[in-house]
Amino acid sequence: MTKWDIFFNEKIKQIFENKKNIIDIGGGLRISKQKGNRFDPKREWIIKYLDKVNYKILDPVADYNPDIVGDIHNLPMGNDSTDAIICIAVLEHIENPFRAFDEMYRVLKKGGYCFIYVPFIYYYHAQPGYYGDFWRYTEDGVRHLSRKFASIEIQSVRWPLETWVFLSPFGRIKFLNTLARKIDVLLKKQNSKQTSGYNIFLTK
Predict the structure, then answer these.
(1) pLDDT greater than 90 at residue 141
(2) What do you get for the CA distance between the two ends of the chain, in Å?
(3) Could you tell me the domains of the chain?
(4) Is-above-0.90 flag for pTM?
(5) What is the pLDDT of residues 38-61, one digit of tens each?
(6) What's the CA gap between 25 and 68, in Å, rounded?
(7) What dihedral do alpha carbons 29, 31, 32, 38 form, nearest 10°?
């Protein structure tokens, strides 16, 4: 398992084991076949936690049956009302990330968690009629947007050579991705800022 997968699993487990009211903006966990446009069977391990928490999916349109129809720029929750937010692969598709970060900070309770994934070196992936593709994020940008939070942990997702392979026509060949990752380690590129994106864990 990769370092970024370990980071993801540990932080999502921490959220579901320690928080009660959880909002998944955009349904990025992909654990519901009924409430979202995609399902990821690799994340079925999370489903066992759902009976113990109040987990809600928020989306700006009703097309995919979210629990809450709402806009990340103006979240329909009160100040300090939410234990945790999950926001995976959403922030590249919104118009104003500064506003979005302010809103997530506003609705989180003190000590609340926020798990985010954002892309950096990544392909264009708008969905016409649903969302555009506006932004890419460096680590500097992430830290600036997260500056109000009490703590921030960042884990890069892929290193330089694997990022290049992933975006190339050979990106669907798992062996080549694994080989590129091993070469990245051999070349000590684990701390490179040239990455596909970032998993981020914030505490208010």
Answers:
(1) yes
(2) 29
(3) 3-159+193-203 (3.40.50.150)
(4) yes
(5) 888 889 999 999 999 999 999 999
(6) 9
(7) 70
